[in-house]
Amino acid sequence: MRRIQIIALFPDSQKALRDDSGHSIAASQLEVSLEDQTWRPFPARSLHQLPSGVLVISENIDTLGRQGEKLYRMRIRLAEAAKTVLPARYQGILQLQTVVQ
Question: Helix, strand or coil for residue 29?
């Protein structure tokens, strides 16, 4: 049985989201949910410039077919334990990596 896994990651765990004034939100202050599943936190990293990622889906390829298509809804929010975040318009890059096993 072959599986496809999708991993969501922020390339810089300490500055996952940034605003124009230089304020940032670490990936460890964020959580991700796929298709209304349980919220999963991004792991904390002690070193700067390391990526922080979380497995968001693991799907059996056989159920999708050779050229299967499936849409997923992904949501990101601040974790309840997040430090105080200044109100601003934050932006960042969330990469999706696909692994076939």
Answer: helix
